[in-house]
């Protein structure tokens, strides 16, 4: 019987502090779980087991997560001496020669990295099915997607391989897999965590990095470890008032929460996703919060989707060209999946003027979106338009390489607003469908106000616990 599989990272670290378990015992148990379930799920695509065991045997930094096993996503975040493929065969020979600032902070907290998790090519789709790394499967139903682009991280955490794992989010890639796999996923405020050193203004600051967790307190404690601007960053989040771990134990008070059900793409929302929002609203009212309905519309928001795509595809061009420069190889169509290459060509065709117009309009839209918080503490909405779809749902039909973009936009249309405006947002697992699939609900908070989200999430976790729910593939 594995004594650690049901413990979150905070509890595992406490065992090490009390000398009731050693880092090596935690690491060996996690490795055994990976070896047991990864052949089914394909969540972990690189393993560093020998190096992890060596680190666990040595003198680890004394931090909040000393000895706790962890996984990095195979996207954006550099780890010295280990391939960073971005889910693409084009990147298979890319081996960074130094850790990124985020990895340095994670290692200083005492974490032990066991390997890297699956991601779609260049992190572009809300599913994890790259041709290079192969499809990742959802532990709740292995015929379904775990979401993306942090699908490997979500499958690894939901199945109990590790208590939490690194994730990134440029349009929902933390919240999407959290909703699909029954996890807590917080996207921090823009600039809260470092993106350096190799990445500067990638994707016009749509990207943030954090983690997928089973408990709210793990997310808060990890953000305490990693947050803060790195040297030379052009953008910084507002300072936090105190450690986020203290917020988890602080009652949120009576909050004003507004429901936004209008779908930004005009897509039909699945009844289970609507039921999840309405159930969350009833729970919030039972907890004493004031809940009403409203709209997040701002003038010109009918064009914001196109502006987002212009900036986002410019980021695709940047990502591929930067990778090409690092590996000394020119990109060609044969190196990429048809969808990725189509986005790259689309981004090239937009031109500088279109990019500058789009980025300016997104800034205007961001300022307008902030005014929706003048009398509201948080907005409640679906995380996704439907429960986890079948694998293959986002495949490109022959001759239609851009088709997955429309399908992806309809699936996750509630997510990009938080990236566009730089706002913190979280998916909370409060609902399960009639056929046993997790369905997350999304809360979006004020700029810089992760504190309120953590207080609210911890209250919801206590009122409607989710950690005891177990997928078909677990432990």
TrEMBL record:
Domain Amidase: start-end pairs: 25-453
Top-level taxon of origin: Bacteria
Protein name: Amidase
Protein family (similarity comment): Belongs to the amidase family.
Record InterPro entries: Amidase, Amidase_dom, AS_sf
One matching Pfam family: Amidase
Organism: Corallococcus macrosporus DSM 14697
Gene Ontology molecular functions: catalytic activity
